[in-house]
Write a structure and sequence with these properties.
Elements (H helix, E strand, L loop, with lengths): L2 E6 L4 H5 L3 H9 L2 E6 L2 H8 L9 H18 L15 H13 L4 H13 L8 H10 L11 H17 L7 E4 L4 E3 L4 H9 L3
Parallel strand pairs: 1-2
Antiparallel strand pairs: 1-3, 3-4
Helix pairs in contact: 2-9, 5-6, 5-8, 6-7
């Protein structure tokens, strides 16, 4: 059975545009997933990337066209300039880590719900009430939003170090235990083919 380490940031528009396809692909192949939210800005600084706001205007202009195109292809609503972006990623990331440790709900639904709040619903995922609502909607105890903060912080930092060690430099990033890595929601078909043995 294959295993996928899924490195992502709760503010990443491209992770949002992946929808729940990772979970669908994993279910198709009987693969397991470990969710590893991380600080994408810190990852950029460690791996030679540049935060979106500091990129050359031509790169920013391309991103402004590419995101709506990708959203339209995926059939997912997208606000290109959300009201609460950027915001503090740590609280939502800690909640995902706590939910993964607790079990009992749908982690894919939780992650997508949090990102949908940013990119479609104009909600601030640094706010406890928003996080609690997403936890509850995904079948988790909403009190996980304010528990396990120390463990969440430690795991969040560890995820960043592990990402750097494994060659991760963006989000979403999928690391399969076969040694193959896939960057971007537009590589999910390749991940699917790899798990099928065709790539």
């Amino acid at each position: 059975m294959a295993h996928i380490d899924y490195f992502f940031a709760t503010l990443s528009p491209f992770a949002y545009l992946a929808g729940t396809r990772l979970e669908e692909i994993a279910a198709k192949h009987g693969a397991t997933i470990t969710y590893k939210p991380l600080d994408i800005i810190a990852l950029f600084s460690r791996t030679g990337g540049t935060p979106p706001g500091q990129r050359h205007p031509s790169r920013q202009a391309y991103r402004a066209q590419e995101l709506p195109r990708s959203a339209k292809k995926a059939g997912i609503p997208l606000n290109l300039k959300p009201a609460h972006w950027p915001t503090n990623m740590a609280p939502s990331s800690y909640a995902i880590i706590a939910a993964q440790n607790a079990g009992g709900g749908d982690l894919g639904k939780l992650c997508h719900g949090l990102m949908r709040c940013v990119w479609a619903e104009e909600k601030d995922i640094a706010q406890e009430d928003v996080i609690r609502a997403c936890l509850e909607e995904a079948g988790f105890d909403p009190s996980l939003a304010d528990s396990g903060l120390l463990e969440g912080a430690e795991t969040y930092a560890r995820n960043l170090e592990e990402a750097v060690d494994k060659g991760v430099f963006g989000a979403p990033f999928y690391v399969v235990d076969s040694g193959q890595v896939f960057w971007g929601q537009d590589r999910l078909d390749d991940l699917d083919a790899h798990l099928s043995g065709d790539l």
